Amino acid sequence: NSNLLREDLMLNQLEKSLKTTRSENERLKKDLKSLNSSIKTLLPKIKKIEDEVDSFQEKINRTDEKMMKQRIEKENFQKNLQDLRIQLIELESRRDQITYKKKSGEETKEEINVRQIKVNKEVDDLIHQKSEITGEIQSKEKNLKLINAEIQKQRSLLNLKKEVFRETYEELEQIQAKIASDQKNKEHILEELKNLEIESSKTEQQI
C-alpha cells in the first residue's frame, strides 16, 4: 500500500509537471509567433527607411554640386567686378590727366580751341564709358547679392537635409537593434521550447 501510494503521488507530480510544461510550451509558441510577426512588420519599414536614406544622400549630393557651381560663378563675378573697378580707376586717371593738360596747355588760341574740342570729346567719351562701367558694376553687384542669397538658401537646405538624414539613420539603427534583440529572444524561446519538448518527452516516458 505504501508503495502504491508513493507511486500515485509520483504519478500525480509527473502529470502536474507535464501539464505545466505543456502550458509553458504553448505560451512560448505564442511568444515566438508574436516575435515572428513583429519582425515581418519591421522589415518593410527598414526597407522604406533605407530607401529614404539613399534618396536623402542623392539630394545632398545634388545640393553639394549646385553649391559648387554657384561658388564658381560667384568667384567669376567677383573677378569681373574687380577688373571693371580697375578699368574705372584707369579711366578716371586718364580723365584727370586730360583735365590737367586742358588747364595747363600753352598752345595758341586756335590750337587751344582745336585741342579743347578734342579734349572735350575725350572727356565726354570717358564720362560715357564711366557711366557704362558704373552701370555694369552695379549690375554685377546685384547679381553677386543674388548668388550669395541663393548660396545661403542652398546651405540652409543642405543643413536641413543632413539633419533629416541623421535622424532617419538613428531611427534605422534603433529598429535594427530591436530586430537583433527580437532575434535573440526568438533564439532563446526556441532553445526553451527545445528543452521543454525534451523534458515533456522524458515526463511522458516516465508516465
Architecture overview:
It is a single chain. This protein has 207 residues and is mainly α. The protein is built from two helices and no strands. Helix 1 packs antiparallel against helix 2 (109-206). The chain is rod-shaped, with a radius of gyration of 44 Å. The mean pLDDT is 77.
Tally of strands:
0
Strand content: under 5%
Mean pLDDT: 77
Separation of the first and last Cα atoms: 19 Å
Q: pLDDT below 50 for ≥5 consecutive residues: which ranges? A: none
Number of helical elements: 2
Task: Give me the secondary-structure category.
Answer: mainly alpha
| Biggest beta-sheet profile | none
How does the overall form come out from the CA principal axes?
rod-shaped
Pattern of helices and strands: HH
Helix content: over 70%
- Based on CA atoms alone, the radius of gyration comes out at 44 Å
